């Protein structure tokens, strides 16, 4: 049996480990089973593009080390054999120094020093997660069961040709036959939009620099001159990467002063002028206090409630969002009572809140107006900021409140601890999506246009450390935030930026960095394999019909919902060809998160399900999603 896995990042490695585990069990039960030959493909070394080990150390992960793994655990509801291993934190603690030394990297001593400083609730440099993936691969490679041959091909897969049966995997330097193929590629850049191409063309003929959306570790920032203006468009995770590279990466450093940070300027930094449509940085991740497998236990967004509403055809976006708000309020006020040393009231409050149909009355009775949770403001803080007399001061003051709350931790800070419900309840939203409980109209209007952008803003932000750094940089004048509605246009020999909401704010710069993460849009992807699959009709885009008869594309690659097999342009399922992860974003939901131990992680379930299908193709069981 020949299996090809395309993508050597976390999903590819996880799939590989499950395939080997399944083979080992099958071989133990039947020694006559055919030998297994697995090829793993990626144009980058093991770990893939995002986690490559030659990127700057200041680019950090967005998940605590103890909440990151590539191994299954006792909570994963799967049919395959359990194969455990160290989490990222356990690896850093027990294995990293020796393994890093063995790799012979030129800065091994510095990397080992960083690894030794990291605790279970810290955020590791992305390159260290890449080294962890190499460890997992080498451990597997060194302990392969008899009958298994494993080869890594460092080359970009450009085409996949059906052979009936099987496939030919085509790279720039050769081709390889396979009986089963799993496409586990992650993020990829897209072809330039019309707006981006205009900026590229303008930069090519003018004395300016434009960096289109890309992964910050790939960007050549050396062209940006010290103390000159640089526009950074986007205030999400990539913004913080660029912020770090243009400050810490240029010799500046942060000094703790009480509960805050002070930035010491090196003189090599540019003046960063940053903005976005919303004009507000993403909310911070609170300091982690949750242990192994610990998450919010839902009271309103339960599987039973969602199933009841969904099967009755009563689960709309508004209903689902209303349940989410109830969940957030329950956590917020419970934490607030804890913060105010009113511990004795928490149990009774939770009972009353869960029972009432009018929570506002209960909240008014128990809490002062000033301390009540204003979700409209939390979800749209830019509205008050725009109405303030000093936008910058308002944002800094609000960020400092968030920092104080997030620093208290996700089991103590009422605001950020409550908003973490958005993260902890992702499996419930996935369940709704996979079960098809939302109509196509609700899927588009609520999930894609409203909820997912809010989820990104509220629950996918950086560690609180990054917001502390941002405030310190604003205070010394290195960073300036543009009010909501940042717009940039080329003018003569420079770029101009304004705030659409406050046009009196105008700026000029010779440098423009597009810090928006490339969205998953397979219609314009630069991934040559995805393009070929679509051209050949082996793959198709997920299209959905609305109530008015029109249709829309989610931009996702269409796969069979519970088997991850590709669906052709003729609506047929392709045997032995699987695709999962980021290219399916839109068909599935929130596919780009790290694998977490102790929570029955859905990505680990998917990896095992694909392995099971390869060894037991007649079964192709529909493993229910974890909720």
Describe this structure in words.
This protein has 21 helices and 21 strands. It has 627 residues and is an alpha/beta fold. The chain has 3 domains: 2-189 and 520-621, FAD/NAD(P)-binding domain (3-Layer(bba) Sandwich); 194-282 and 463-514, FAD/NAD(P)-binding domain (3-Layer(bba) Sandwich); 303-460, no CATH class. Strands 3-2-1-7-21-20 form a 6-stranded mixed beta sheet, covered by helices on one side. It has a 5-stranded parallel beta sheet with strand order 8-17-9-12-13. The chain has a 3-stranded antiparallel beta sheet with strand order 4-5-6. InterPro entries: FAD/NAD-bd_sf (IPR036188), HpyO/CreE_NAD-binding (IPR038732), L-asp_N-monooxygenase_NS-form (IPR052189).
Give descriptors for this structure:
17% strand; 38% helix; L-asp_N-monooxygenase_NS-form; alpha/beta; 21 strands; FAD/NAD(P)-binding domain; FAD/NAD-bd_sf; HpyO/CreE_NAD-binding; FAD-dependent urate hydroxylase HpyO/Asp monooxygenase CreE-like FAD/NAD(P)-binding domain-containing protein; six-stranded mixed sheet; 627 residues
> What is the CATH architecture term of the largest domain?
3-Layer(bba) Sandwich
- How much of the sequence lies in strands comes to 15-25%
**Major sheet: order of its strands?**
3-2-1-7-21-20
State the helicity in percent bands: 25-40%
Radius of gyration: 25 Å
The top level CATH class name of the largest domain: Alpha Beta
Reported by name, the CATH topology of the largest domain is: FAD/NAD(P)-binding domain
Helix count equals: 21
Please identify the structural class as seen in this structure.
alpha/beta
Silhouette = globular
């Amino acid at each position: 049996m020949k299996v090809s896995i395309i993508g050597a990042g976390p999903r590819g490695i996880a799939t590989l480990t499950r395939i080997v585990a399944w083979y080992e069990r099958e071989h133990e039960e039947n020694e006559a089973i055919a030998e297994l030959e697995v090829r793993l493909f990626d144009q980058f070394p093991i770990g893939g593009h995002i986690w490559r080990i030659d990127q700057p150390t200041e680019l950090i992960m967005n998940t605590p080390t103890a909440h990151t793994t590539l191994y299954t655990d006792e909570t994963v509801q799967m049919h395959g054999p359990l194969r455990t291993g160290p989490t990222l934190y356990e690896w850093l603690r027990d294995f990293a120094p020796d393994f890093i030394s063995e790799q012979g990297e030129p800065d091994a001593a510095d990397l080992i020093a960083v690894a030794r400083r990291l605790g279970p609730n810290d955020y590791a440099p992305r390159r260290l997660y890449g080294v962890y993936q190499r460890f997992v691969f080498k451990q597997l490679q060194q302990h392969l069961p008899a009958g298994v041959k494993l080869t890594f091909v460092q080359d970009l897969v450009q085409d996949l040709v059906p052979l009936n049966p099987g496939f030919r995997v085509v790279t720039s330097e050769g081709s390889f036959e396979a009986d089963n193929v799993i496409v586990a590629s992650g993020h990829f850049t897209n072809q330039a939009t019309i707006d981006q191409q205009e900026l590229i063309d303008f930069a090519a003929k003018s004395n300016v620099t434009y960096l289109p959306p890309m992964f910050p570790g790939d960007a050549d920032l050396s062209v940006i001159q010290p103390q000159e203006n640089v526009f950074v468009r986007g205030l999400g995770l990539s913004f913080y990467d660029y912020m770090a590279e243009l400050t810490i990466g240029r010799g500046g450093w942060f000094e703790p002063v009480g509960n805050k940070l002070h930035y010491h300027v090196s003189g090599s930094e540019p003046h960063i002028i940053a903005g976005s449509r919303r004009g507000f940085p993403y909310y911070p991740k609170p300091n982690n206090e949750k242990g192994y497998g610990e998450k919010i236990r839902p009271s309103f967004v339960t599987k039973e409630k969602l199933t009841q509403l969904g099967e009755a055809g009563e689960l709309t976006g508004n209903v689902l969002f209303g349940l989410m708000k109830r969940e957030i309020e329950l956590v917020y006020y419970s934490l607030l009572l804890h913060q105010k040393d009113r511990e004795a009231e928490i149990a009774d409050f939770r009972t009353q809140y869960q029972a009432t149909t009018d929570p506002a009355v209960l909240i008014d009775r128990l809490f002062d107006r000033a301390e009540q949770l204003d979700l409209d403001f939390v979800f749209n803080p830019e509205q008050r900021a725009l109405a303030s007399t000093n936008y910058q001061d308002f944002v800094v003051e609000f960020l400092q409140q968030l920092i104080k709350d997030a620093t208290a931790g996700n089991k103590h800070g009422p605001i950020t601890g409550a908003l973490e419900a958005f993260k902890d309840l992702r499996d419930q939203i996935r369940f709704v999506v996979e079960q098809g409980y939302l109509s196509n109209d609700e899927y588009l209007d609520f999930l894609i246009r409203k909820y997912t952008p809010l989820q990104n803003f509220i629950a996918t932000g950086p560690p609180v450390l990054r917001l502390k750094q941002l405030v310190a940089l604003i205070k010394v004048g290195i960073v300036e935030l543009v009010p909501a509605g940042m717009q940039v246009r080329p003018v003569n020999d420079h770029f101009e930026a304004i705030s659409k909401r406050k046009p009196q704010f105008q700026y000029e710069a010779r440098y423009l960095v597009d810090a928006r993460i490339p969205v998953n849009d397979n219609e314009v992807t630069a991934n040559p394999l995805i393009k070929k699959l679509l051209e050949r009709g082996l793959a198709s885009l997920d299209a959905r019909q609305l109530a008015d008869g029109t249709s829309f594309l989610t931009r996702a690659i269409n796969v069979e919902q519970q088997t991850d097999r590709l669906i052709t342009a003729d609506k047929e399922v392709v045997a032995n060809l699987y695709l999962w992860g980021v290219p399916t974003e839109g068909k599935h939901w929130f596919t780009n998160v790290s694998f977490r131990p102790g929570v029955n992680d859905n990505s680990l379930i998917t990896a095992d399900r694909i392995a099971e299908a390869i060894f037991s193709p007649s079964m192709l069981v529909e493993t229910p999603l974890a909720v």
